[in-house]
Amino acid sequence: MDKYFVVSAKATACADKKMNNTTVKNLYKSFCLGDGELTLTEGADNTFVLGATQLPQLPEGKEWALRIDEKGAAIIGRDFGGLMRGFMVLMMKMEYTDQDIRMAYTCEASAYRMENRMIHICIFPDSGDYFIKKLIRLCGLCQYTHIILEFWGMLQYDCMKELAWPMAYTKEQAKQMIQQVRELGMEPVPMFNQLGHATACRVRHGKHVVLDQNPRLQPLFTGDGWDWNIYSERVHQLHKDIRRELYEVFGEGEYFHVGCDESYNYTHDEYSRKNRLPAFLNRLTTEVVEEGRRPMIWMDMMLERGKYPGATATCPAEEVESIQKSLHPKTVMVDWQYRIYEAPISTMMSLKDTGYDVMGAPWHDPKNYTAFADTIAEQGFFGMMMTTWHTLELKMPSVLGCAKKCGATTHTWSHISSAKTYGKETAALWRRVAFEGNDFKSAGWIERDITELYVGQ
Q: What pLDDT is stored for residue 393 in this prediction?
């Protein structure tokens, strides 16, 4: 028969001083069904102690360990990120009865299958501020280590006002968003696509954040506006200015995602592809390293065309080696593939011996992200980067599903609720991160309750 520690809604804990923030207190309040009030006194770094129990031992190679017994609950983390991921797990140990809130006795440690568990989030003009706030909190509960934030025309820059729509986030608003990422124990990673996707809008709808506001800036782009003009020194300087501003907004960090995917013009322009693109990528990745960051880059433009069934790969076989070697050695290769469903992922395996760190990047299909997780864990790759794009309204459970395939620990009842689709457990977590409350439109992750299925990209 299980034994339980009864949780007090009004509680005092001794913890790492970095936990003494509104985000942590709101999580406690929410998991105590809106009645929780957590007071934090300063304790040792990377620790949290509720009650009088002893800290557990942190096993070698683990990110966190936690103990729950008759005296209380305690967590120790390898670092602050590990501590916060342990805190997320602790919150999900809470069970509810008519009489009390309780947690079953346990002593356990993290069991992640890979070190780096990242998620890429796009911020669109119609995403909604509250939606993004809850999404970031959900990613924290899912124990991701990094969030890559890509503002699609939704961040105001000093270097060129046309890079943002008028309703875009100010830098101060973005900094508040990024601060919450840090309070949840994750590292925020800036991204700006510096080759294709220059519209900062989805291709199928014909919008272009810069040219729809100022058509005189056409020389910065290829004729159709989809790609940046890599022959232009003005573009080169603009991208440097953009990166400098993003470093200021995001603060200290290890990575910068340069994008560089789906560059349709350069894919079909043989001269530019052979004679200009490798030099452009070398200059770009080298400058990012000189700026103190490790560049991350999508790999579809650097994989052999037609070699891998189901893969997105556009590079002629005879050019693969030269374009891959053009990248700075500190570059992280990010292999996004959405139609490969069996491990090992063939395109990842082709990159294993390149000398670069390699990440796998799946999308929302469970077969796809499971194959990636298995490949990365079994082959010892650098990590996973879950992508979300424009489909989150209907595919939100993939955020949790992918995290679980990476080894995230969640509710004790998860295995009997939604082990295949994770929809019900995602809904339970989504309610816990709605700190500001809900109405009909903001409840759940879609404003409507009846909607047609999304078809195509």
A: 87
Q: Which two tokens stand for residue 3?
A: 């034994």
Q: Is the Cβ–Cβ distance between 88 and 100 less than 8 Å?
A: no
Domains and CATH numbers, the chain: 4-111 (3.30.379), 116-430 (3.20.20.80)
287 vs 290: CA distance, rounded Å: 5
Q: Quote the tokens at residue 201.
A: 């809008």
Q: Which of 124, 180, 186 is nearest to 150 (CA)?
A: 124
Instruction: Encode pLDDT of 218-257 as tens digits.
Output: 999 999 999 999 999 999 999 999 999 999 999 999 999 9
Structure tokens at 102: 């309780």
Distance of CA 264 to the CA centre of its chain: 26
Range name among 117-131, 247-261, 410-424, 428-442 with the lowest pLDDT average: 410-424
- Inter-residue contact 359 to 332 (CB < 8 Å): yes
Handedness of CA 63, 121, 180, 136 (dihedral sign): negative
Is residue 456's pLDDT more than 60? Answer: no
- CA terminus-to-terminus distance, the chain: 51
Distances (CA, A) of 451 to 38, 122, 176, 439, 447: 40, 22, 32, 18, 10
